[in-house]
Amino acid sequence: MSQEQVYAAAGFGQPVPRGQRPAIIVVDFSYGFTDLQYPTASDAAAQMAATKRICDQLRSKGFPVIFSTIAYHPGEIQRLAWLRKAGGMAALLEGSRLVEIDAATGIQPGDVVVTKKGASSFFGSTLAALLTAAGTDTLIVAGATTSGCVRATVVDAVQSGFNVLVPKDCCADRAQAPHEANLYDMQQKYADVTDSGEILEWLQTL
């Protein structure tokens, strides 16, 4: 059997239902991940532009636009296990430019920014509470990196009861192979991997 047949036979890849109350979490489009002067960054200019169009549409309809950023207190650097494995993240210090959301995302004063210490935007943050309070039923996940924090957020989102959509042209990574592999896996198990154009068409119907 082909790879697609193997997954289909196992019951994976079913379409995700779409509700009436969407929101977006834009994962870690902070300068530490988007400005190429920093070694932790990748080129995300096109992905931020596509994400901005979705955010603008959601705001115009009164739906939540939420950003996440990783930011560490100096006292955490030597104590957090993840930073022993991913040492480059230690540069993401509270108050530094690296943890600020990139202005190219079109972030607005009314948007929420949640701060996290690990990969998932849900872990140790107020994200789940914010989405629940808004009555969100469908969560759009964009940002960086596809194979790291985007994927972790997607897994936690579906495990938290949200229908999940991932616009692939709104996700950035440092290398193409992990980007594509993780999009494939998310499509099979956790989310509908689509694109910004299709999501914008859906949002216009709400």
Q: Which key phrases capture this entry?
A:
206 residues; alpha/beta; Rossmann fold; 7-stranded parallel β-sheet; 8 helices; 36% helix; hydrolase; Isochorismatase-like_hydrls; Isochorismatase family protein; Isochorismatase-like_sf
Low-confidence stretches: none
Put simply, the count of helices is 8
Number of domains: 1
Rg is 16 Å
- Strand percentage: 15-25%
CATH homologous superfamily descriptor: Isochorismatase-like
Q: Helix fraction? A: 25-40%
Principal-axis shape equals globular
Name of the CATH first level: Alpha Beta
Q: Examine the secondary-structure arrangement and name the CATH architecture.
A: 3-Layer(aba) Sandwich
Order of helices and strands: HEHHEHEHEHEEHEH
Largest sheet: 7 strands, parallel
- CATH fold name: Rossmann fold
Look at the structure and give the mean pLDDT: 96
User: Which class of secondary structure composition applies to the elements?
Assistant: alpha/beta
**What is the CA–CA distance across the termini?**
40 Å
Number of strands: 7
Keywords: Hydrolase
GO molecular function: hydrolase activity
Protein name: Isochorismatase family protein
Domain Isochorismatase-like: 23-196
